[in-house]
Design brief:
single chain; alpha/beta; 50% helix
Amino acid sequence: MAQYVDSVIFDLGAVLIRWDPHHIVNTFTPDKTLAQLMLEQVFQHQDWLDLDAGLITEQEAAIKIAARANVSVASIHELFAVVKQSFTQIDKTVLLLEKMSAHGIKLYCLSNMSVESYQYLTATHSFFKHFDGLVISGYEKLIKPDINIFELIKNKFKLNAAHTLFIDDMPYNISAALECGLQAIEFTESDTCYQAIIDKVIPLSHNNKYILNR
């Protein structure tokens, strides 16, 4: 018999907010060569992971990227601004978060994100009020899929792993969560995925079928 769920941990990027580096670089510049360069030298480079892990600041990252890509530091800061502007909420997931909150589910956030991006998000999105606790990689100097960041959120909020569901879009993060004893669902924006989450979290007695369409 499946374990019941009384706590849910949400990722942010591509779960609650849009995250699409290809769209970001193409918004930043119509120059396809420059867009590809930014994709490779920013989002596909170790510096981006270090920024998310809080090992470098945005300013430090901008200096390193600019030197490597032979562009101005100011242009990298412009790209970082486009990144933040791209963080629009995924309405259906936010509605799901609100439904869970209304049903008394404990809600948490575990995200790989820089301090600067997190500060921007909390200033521009109201859904953070639904969380009972958050662990953001930039503050903790740890990053998914490191097992230690999963142990951190479990211990910090005294979560019972067997009764906690982790929702994330990346398969390797799902694997790490399962290794830590959490229940986990790999997120997609499909009706099937949303319904699977609802069926696992919100009791059938609440008539949950297609609850997001109401």
